[in-house]
Amino acid sequence: MQRVLWSFIFMIALLIVLNKWQLYVKAVKEIIRKPKLFWSLLLASVLISTNWGIFMWAVIEGRIVEASLGQYINPLTSMLIGVIVLKERLNGTQILAYVLAGIEE
User: Considering the entire predicted model, what is its pTM?
Assistant: First the structure.
């Protein structure tokens, strides 16, 4: 929590010093005006937070192997969801990398 807080404070200070505050406000307003984009970003934020929360819980509980395996499988699952749900196309190198990563498990 401390990292999140200090990162937030640092970024606000950086926006003010670089005089980019208005650009940030404009971007936030644009996201709020587009409900589909807003809910997509909110869902992505919740999923990432859940992933890290489970990872931290697993490490605290001494389940290091399970946590490591979960962090290894997560990008493979995300890639598979992208191919199936979003109809993304993989090139030959990407397919080879995915297969090799899957075999490694």
Answer: 0.62
